[in-house]
Amino acid sequence: MDIGIDKIGFYAPHLYVDMNKLAVSREVEPEKFTIGIGQEKMAVAPITQDTVTLAANAALDILTEADKEKIDFVIFGTETGVDHSKSAGVYIHHLLGMNPWARTVEVKQACYGATAAIQMAKGHIALNPSSKVLVLGADIARYGLKTSGEATQGAGAIAMVISAEPKIMKLEEHSAYLTADVMDFWRPVYSEMALVDGKLSNEQYISFFSKIWGKYKEKSGLALQDFEAICYHLPYTKMGYKALKTVLDETAEETQERLLSNYKISTQYSRNIGNIYTGSLYLALLSLLEQKEDLAAGSRIGLFSYGSGAVGEFFTGILQPNYRNYLNTRQHTELFSARTEVSVSEYEQIFAETLPKDGTSIELDTDQDPAKICLAGMKDHMRQYIHKTK
């Protein structure tokens, strides 16, 4: 039985800041942001968007009523959840009107969370072939204004339906994974901002890829020439390139050129969104699928997932016949074109807007947010969500 990605969608906030202008404001050469780390625009989440609403909006346009009945497991990978106890997925379960006879959980391991969710989903489908699983990956990356990590912030969400006989990508059997206790990136429960050792994190990312790639080759018997493309977790778009180039000498020049060309295509969406943590690998995959129109069915795509702290995994998928018919390319193109640029000062004001820390009731103006699902405020310590089309 084939199991894999049947549907995939994404959502990002309607606001962004231009990285050239941010660099000038921070008295940094713009090329450091646009070339050095490979970012052009950074999605900015208004106070009316959190990880719940981002994920709900990502799922909204890909789910049919039939999907909602078949989905009996909702798994939300995030490292910026909204509650220490209640799963963010439960809010989404309600907002989307999902089948009540469904499990719903939240999983966490930095940027690896959505990959863990996919592997859990595969096991569930293997035992329940007629069911479907909704996998979500949503985050808002915040390091603070004028910090070393500011240029690698972002916000967005990925939603995927995992099922038997998938229409987009069949996930193959072999995978390789690794865990090590590394303090390269973390966010203590008392901190709203992530802490990061940038140099160590870069080193560990590449080290994990090298070790896991070696293990994967042992388990699968495959080599670089067997791949049409390899997609990477992208905290910034140059990161995956640094890892890819460490193994290119294993293969012929023709394969090197193909992998490098397709890698560049896979980074287009992330260049204009920024880091979305748990969803960033799958945003890269979506960019490749939607932007490379001649990517043939039957192509093998490698997927490298890395979550600081640290857990990494390499696994693969095969594109299915007529997979392009099941992508939402037009909607995603419209999402990008409809976004509004904010100035650096406006971005700083938005960044400073936060919910009360003491549970004080507050109403938010959702009229300025074009998203169908928004955070409308807080009342009695409870977040208040609205679905504008219900």
From TrEMBL:
- Which residue numbers delimit the Hydroxymethylglutaryl-coenzyme A synthase C-terminal domain? 179-248, 255-349
Q: Which residues cross the membrane?
A: none
Hydroxymethylglutaryl-coenzyme A synthase N-terminal domain mapped to chain residues: 2-164
Pfam family, any one: HMG_CoA_synt_N
GO terms for MF: hydroxymethylglutaryl-CoA synthase activity
In terms of superkingdom, the source organism counts as Bacteria
This enzyme's EC code(s): 2.3.3.10
Q: Does the keyword Acyltransferase apply?
A: yes
The EC class name is transferase
The family database entries (SUPFAM superfamilies) matched by this protein are listed as: Thiolase-like
**What InterPro entries does the entry give?**
HMG_CoA_synt_C_dom (IPR013746), HMG_CoA_synth_N (IPR013528), HMG_CoA_synthase_prok (IPR011554), Thiolase-like (IPR016039)
Q: Keywords assigned by UniProt? A: Acyltransferase, Transferase
NCBIfam families assigned to the protein according to its UniProt record, in alphabetical order: HMG-CoA-S_prok
Family as reported in the entry's similarity comment = Belongs to the thiolase-like superfamily. HMG-CoA synthase family.
- Name the chain's protein: Hydroxymethylglutaryl-CoA synthase
| Organism this protein belongs to | Virgibacillus alimentarius
